[in-house]
Amino acid sequence: MSVPSLKLNTGAFMPAIGLGAWSGVTKEQRASGKAWFLTALKSGYKLIDTAWSYGTERSVGEAIRESGIPRNQIWITTKLAWNHPGLRTPEESSNDSLKKLGTDYVDLYLLHWPQVIDWPDEDEEYDGPQILRDSPAFNETWAGIEKLYASGKAKAIGVSNFSIKNLEKLLTTAKVIPAVNQVEMHPYLPQEDLKAYCDSKGIVLTAYTPTGYATVRNDPLIAELAKKYNSTPGQVVLAWHVARGVSAVPKSTDAQRQKDNITLPNLEQEDVKRITGLDRNERLCNKANEKGLVGGWTYEQLGW
Description:
Elements: E1 5-7, E2 13-15, E3 19-20, H1 27-43, E4 47-49, H2 57-67, E5 75-80, H3 90-101, E6 108-111, E7 116-118, E8 131-133, H4 138-151, E9 157-160, H5 164-171, E10 180-184, H6 192-201, E11 204-208, H7 213-217, H8 220-228, H9 233-243, E12 247-248, H10 255-261, H11 269-276, E13 293-294, E14 297-298, H12 299-302
Parallel strand pairs: 3-4, 4-5, 5-6, 6-9, 9-10, 10-11, 11-12
Antiparallel strand pairs: 1-2, 7-8, 13-14
Helix pairs in contact: 1-2, 2-3, 8-9
């Protein structure tokens, strides 16, 4: 099947499958991303998901311009870095992202994390201690992001790594309901309660780490279904997301896998249920460290 679009609470239609644009931690790795961003665009991708902290916004903008595809035909998602609240206003941070991307608006602007980390404002490559700052609260940061939406610099706004607990806190003061919540989601972490909650609020979920690395792709059930549908394990898992009404942003640097990821089988409903049944409540990307923390917060604080 071709990649469908999902309707946001703004009325906009967002492609259900996009390209995750994380490209490593060094300047060289991040600059090298432009080559595979370009192959993805030429393969038919209509959405690229980047972030200030990925350090790839400049490369994404260059790839879009070199592709020759009109800007209004490409959906750009970027994110407010978790070290910016309290150091820059959301508008200042967004302006920096827009300058790097070479555009005057983004299609979706996300608050990357609910917590605030204290590290140097200008350094995307900082890898020192993750020290928490107590303020500002995400409710205050969200109010600044709402102004970006009103200005048109962000056509839609949302959050990332938000649980039901923190969404409920946000919604006590929010004037604009997030259009999207981007979270880790795959068959070992289908987050059915969060999905039901977001569905009830009109919030579309986007999955990062959507195929669950080789850990999930090598699961016997996924292998069985890949054979049944004459597809790759990755295609089966991405088709599962789409069947659930979830968008996904897989990273792939390989041209053939990029094409595979936007050419998906139609899964039978029973197979969708079987994949959801693999649930282990297991985080593979952002699991707690030896101190029980993710970005300085406990699972309890994150609501995980």
